[in-house]
Design goal:
Structural class: alpha/beta
Radius of gyration: 23 Å
Mean pLDDT: 94
Helix content: 55-70%
Shape: globular
Number of helices: 22
Strand content: 5-15%
Number of domains: 2
Number of strands: 5
Largest sheet: 5 strands, mixed
Order of helices and strands: HHHHHHHHHHHHHHHHHHHEHEEHHEE
């Protein structure tokens, strides 16, 4: 049964895998092409992620290349492995029936499918968290130490699982011998971060400075707002899809949310899953008052706990309502997942089409202008030799100017680039939208 489930999970994660890279995925590709020296000296100090995922991708792309499918294939593997480990955890903390339901729900989860197709570190971090929890339950402390270090060098936010495990151990009133081994298992992580601390502090300083120089960027990263808090359960349930009519959207999510909440509340015996989900999110909310991390995708590592609780709640339902309940939950999952997989409007930013469109229409005396130098990675991925520039590249004499409006509200809220182009005498010819990536075309009068 579980291998059939894993096979279905793999197939679902291969559908639409070849869609365009978006900005952050293109960053992954460009970092993978850097030398090790440049990764550590030039890139990582300005980023806010540890190095492990980038190093894995450097090795992977050296063998399999830099295509969209190649870049995303590791995340597909991480996603399928995560499903299997969640099945093992479900059997360990509850029963096989719940384990199977949880694994099937994760297989069909729109959010998990999406990030199993993302060339970023969140799928790897989720796999490491679930395996860490499995080793914790097995009391395999050497493996626990190793995975903790790997997790710490993959994603900082995912380390919030450790306080959850501490609270779980306190509630369970573990004995002194257990606590001794548990504490010793943290020593390698402390040692690793002692070495990594100067880079981490530099990253933290740069992150704080971004909050000062581009305050709108902090809103994107995830400040504490009612909307960002509400989006976590909403996206856990339906993934990245939405309904244009906000009234219908709210009504649908209200009904679905009530049913899911009722089922989760019924899962009273899964203390580990409760602290895994609840403590991680609570710490994330508190931390985000100081450093914004409250974006739902950063808590993908808590999604398996959500489905374990949901599955345990479903398992408590008696026939014939059990069949109705499980059918309803699967219908929600499958509807949201196939909406994402089959409808391009729910796909990622379409930089591939945009770059193809613009470059096919550019003359030698044309330029593509970005409102910030930090937003060029996806364009460079698809057109390495293209003539592009930041706002300092705006000048007279071009036949055409293509103005990228990407994250304009963050880096150019006053529309200075637009004003400068028009003041130089350029006439706007058109606006083009490629799944959220907007470019304006200007011609020299």
């Amino acid at each position: 049964m579980i291998f059939l489930v894993l096979g279905i999970g793999l197939v679902l994660r291969l559908i639409s895998l070849n869609q365009s890279l978006w900005l952050d995925e293109a960053t992954t590709a460009l970092v993978a092409k850097m030398s090790l020296r440049d990764i550590f000296s030039k890139f990582l100090p300005g980023d806010f992620h540890p190095p492990l995922y980038y190093l894995i991708m450097k090795v992977w792309t050296a063998v399999f290349g830099y295509s969209e499918i190649s870049l995303r294939a590791p995340s597909v593997i991480f996603g399928v492995l995560t499903i299997y480990v969640v099945y093992l955890i479900g059997k360990k903390i509850y029963d096989k029936k719940t384990a199977v339901i949880a694994s099937v729900l994760l297989v069909t989860s729109g959010l998990h499918i999406y990030y199993s197709q993302e060339a970023r570190m969140y799928g790897l971090a989720t796999l490491l968290v679930v395996y860490l929890i499995y080793l914790f339950l097995q009391e395999s402390w050497i493996g626990f130490s190793i995975i903790t270090c790997l997790l710490g060098m993959t994603d900082y936010v995912s380390l919030m699982i450790l306080p959850a495990l501490w609270i779980y151990a306190i509630v369970k009133k573990q004995n002194k011998t257990w606590w001794k081994r548990f504490l010793i298992s943290h020593i390698p992580l402390v040692a690793v971060f002692a070495v990594w601390l100067p880079v981490f502090l530099h990253q933290l300083k740069n992150g704080v400075n971004v909050g000062v120089t581009a305050s709108g960027w902090w809103n994107i990263l995830g400040q504490v707002t009612a909307k960002n808090i509400a989006l976590i359960p909403v996206k856990f349930i339906i993934g990245r899809v939405s309904i244009d009519n906000k009234l219908v959207y709210g009504l649908v999510m209200g009904i679905v949310g009530i049913v899911f909440a009722y089922l989760i509340i019924r899962a009273k015996k899964l203390l580990l899953a409760w602290v895994w989900l609840g403590v991680s999110l609570l710490i994330g909310i508190i931390l985000s008052f100081f450093i914004p991390t409250l974006s739902y995708f950063r808590y993908l590592f808590a999604l398996p706990a959500f489905y374990l609780l949901l599955s345990a709640g479903i398992s408590t339902i008696k026939k014939p309502w059990f069949v109705v309940t499980i059918a309803f939950v699967f219908l929600v999952n499958l509807t949201s997942s196939f909406a994402y997989l089959l409808l391009p409007r729910f796909w990622r930013e379409d930089w591939r089409s945009l770059v193809s469109f613009v470059e096919a229409r550019k003359s030698r005396n044309s330029v593509t202008i970005f409102v910030a130098d930090s937003n060029m990675e996806a364009y460079r991925y698809y057109a390495p030799d293209a003539k592009i520039a930041g706002p300092e590249g705006i000048k007279s004499g071009y036949d055409h100017v293509w103005l990228m409006r990407y994250v304009k509200d963050v880096f150019d809220p006053g529309d200075k680039a637009e004003a400068k182009i028009e003041n130089l005498g350029y006439k706007k010819l058109g606006e083009y939208d490629f799944n959220g990536v907007v470019v304006w075309e200007y011609a020299n009068k």
